[in-house]
Amino acid sequence: MATDIAATPPPPDPGGGATTARDDGARVPPLRRIWSNYVFVKVRKAFVVVFVVANVTFFLGRAMPGDPVDVMAGRLTQGGMSMDEARAVAINSLAYDPDAPLWSQWWEFISGLATLDMGNTINRPGQTVAEAIGAYLPWTLFSIGVGTLVAIVLGLALGMVMAYWRNRVLDHVLSVVASVLGAVPNYLIAMLLVTGGGMYLGWFDPIDLRGTLSPGVEPGLTAEFVGDALYHAALPIVTYVLAIIGTWMLVMKASTTEVLGEDYVTVARARGLRDRRIAFSYVGRNAVLPLVAQIAISFGTLVGGAIFVEQVLVYKGVGGLLLDAVNYRDYPLLQGLLVIITTCVVLANLVADLLYSRLDPRIRT
Amino acid sequence: MTPTPPAPAADGPLLSVRGVDVGYRTGRRTRLTAVHDASFDLYPGQSMALVGESGCGKTTLGLGLLRLLPRTGTVSAGQILFRRKSGDQVDVRTLAKEDLRRFRWNEAAMVFQGAMNAFNPVLRMEEHFLDTFRAHERRTRRPRAEILEESAELLEMVRLDPARVLPSHPHELSGGMRQRALIALALALRPQLLILDEPTTALDVLTQRSVVEQLTELRERLRFSMVFITHDLGLAAELADRVGTMYAGRLIETGTTRDLFHRARHPYTSALIGSVPPVAGDRHVPEPLPGGPPGLNALPPGCSFEPRCPRATEECTATRPELRVLHPRDEGLSHAAACLHADGAELPTRGGHP
């Protein structure tokens, strides 16, 4: 009896590997298939998130006391103008009609968004919201992007080192450093950098580092421009790296430690694979998988924190613009900024999701 | 690569384990010895089963032979002498890092207990084969196609369809398929020794059978030696020429399969065999052995089995019995037991199983 069983070919896997799944897919009508496609589902959800956030920002902005006219009139009365006069001047100089009903403002905003038109700013005459954002956002995305990238690469590497050397001196030292860095708010790190590194130790001139570009440097794909941009972004980037690297180190250590206990790592050692091959393809790759989703979270946290950091370091990014928009009740600018920032974070999430499904064959559909 | 059967047995044992202790670090200054003074010789072509309750040190010993213990574990005493394909005898304990890497899988491979997770989930099966071959081929970098062809032959040996298995990821294969794929991978470099740790435990009965059949067949064909770690006495009886019983970290009885199943001299072996109900025939109720093995950190000074032993005497509480040869034979097949009363009357094993 036993020989019979052994002689029969292996039974087909009832769980149905990739092939079976594809066969089923062929029978579904094409439109349904696109609709339920993994990427499309994610994109659909991203749109819903952006739409909801757009509405929230619209109403939250208007829930703040006072409108743009009130704010400007308030300033003018301090110069000795009477309230009525000040209001008249404000209404004249601002592109905002305080008597327009809420629903028409809402419709203008939402319909504008659908055609990718975010309207004009209220406080910056002649400048559209898109132009204002376009002038500031790239710097923020650049500094945060580079910071996130450096922090993740370094954090993953150090986390792996900590896991491989766990319970040794190096691990203990790095754990303390990581915990401290994770606990300090990013704007404090920025202040410490300026006062400590710039003023006490004199490593750099914090005044010279202000702004996004040195005067006279023209944007373009030149070594001078890239170098100068990096020079001015150095402090924000270092701040962002220090702010999030601790978390990445600790999370990667935990993840790597777990993977090191997996059977396939022991089997890989038994198979006589070289240490480097095991560390990268067997340990590293599997340890990073559960962390991919956190890339987007890191990015989102940083965009929020950028407002403070950019103020402290006098970096001309989107943070100062957002603060202005709030202070002057520049509704269209505020809405535009928040929608764009949300879109960036949602996009980062989307990329992380898609990346994850690329990296982990078990998620692929 | 043509299968080259190991050199004839005349040269002596393939594996000679002498007085091996394996321990784990449990704290800053505390250690726990999980295997005490293990000694046995394994001759080319032999298949030896290690049996015993959970936690008695079987897996630790198996891992120790290849120095694959987790970070806290070390082989702390003794010698693990292995005769390499080249004919040189080496002590696995003293192999340098790179030497040890080349030794593993090429000379001795291991099929693990959790074969479910033996493969890297993000790599295709073909990449596991490529990785394995490439790690052991020095200068010449063979073309991918050539290695895959050889891998396909290996998979056919265990009756798997290479066209289905090689391009798949591990999660797309069933447990039985993965287990057989691991056996195929283990034989890739024609090792002289295959260590199998509970190779069939997680499989359903039918798959277990086919794995056992294939192992028997492969062993006849490729003539590798086996060390076989198992709870399953039936499996031991079927696949092994000889059996070693372990209890509380010590080998307490070794001998041929026939010796242990029909003429057990250690009361623990006898109880272990007695606890398995026979599949057919006299359906007596199996008697479970009362109590459990002693904690490894609190071993009694005498015989570690004494607290549970039906024939323990005063002497047993004070003197620890050494493994004593009762019936000498060549090629490591002597019947030996570590019991002060081993010379007494034969123990009831309710013979006949299997």
UniProtKB/TrEMBL annotation, chain A:
<feature type="transmembrane region" description="Helical">
    <location>
        <begin position="46"/>
        <end position="64"/>
    </location>
</feature>
<keyword id="KW-0472">Membrane</keyword>
<feature type="transmembrane region" description="Helical">
    <location>
        <begin position="333"/>
        <end position="356"/>
    </location>
</feature>
<comment type="similarity">
    <text>Belongs to the binding-protein-dependent transport system permease family.</text>
</comment>
<feature type="domain" description="ABC transmembrane type-1">
    <location>
        <begin position="137"/>
        <end position="356"/>
    </location>
</feature>
<feature type="transmembrane region" description="Helical">
    <location>
        <begin position="229"/>
        <end position="251"/>
    </location>
</feature>
<keyword id="KW-0812">Transmembrane</keyword>
<dbReference type="InterPro" id="IPR035906">
    <property type="entry name" value="MetI-like_sf"/>
</dbReference>
<dbReference type="Pfam" id="PF19300">
    <property type="entry name" value="BPD_transp_1_N"/>
</dbReference>
<keyword id="KW-1003">Cell membrane</keyword>
<protein>
    <submittedName>
        <fullName>ABC transporter permease</fullName>
    </submittedName>
</protein>
<keyword id="KW-0813">Transport</keyword>
<dbReference type="InterPro" id="IPR045621">
    <property type="entry name" value="BPD_transp_1_N"/>
</dbReference>
<feature type="transmembrane region" description="Helical">
    <location>
        <begin position="177"/>
        <end position="203"/>
    </location>
</feature>
<feature type="region of interest" description="Disordered">
    <location>
        <begin position="1"/>
        <end position="24"/>
    </location>
</feature>
<keyword id="KW-1133">Transmembrane helix</keyword>
<dbReference type="InterPro" id="IPR000515">
    <property type="entry name" value="MetI-like"/>
</dbReference>
<dbReference type="Pfam" id="PF00528">
    <property type="entry name" value="BPD_transp_1"/>
</dbReference>
<feature type="transmembrane region" description="Helical">
    <location>
        <begin position="141"/>
        <end position="165"/>
    </location>
</feature>
<feature type="transmembrane region" description="Helical">
    <location>
        <begin position="287"/>
        <end position="313"/>
    </location>
</feature>
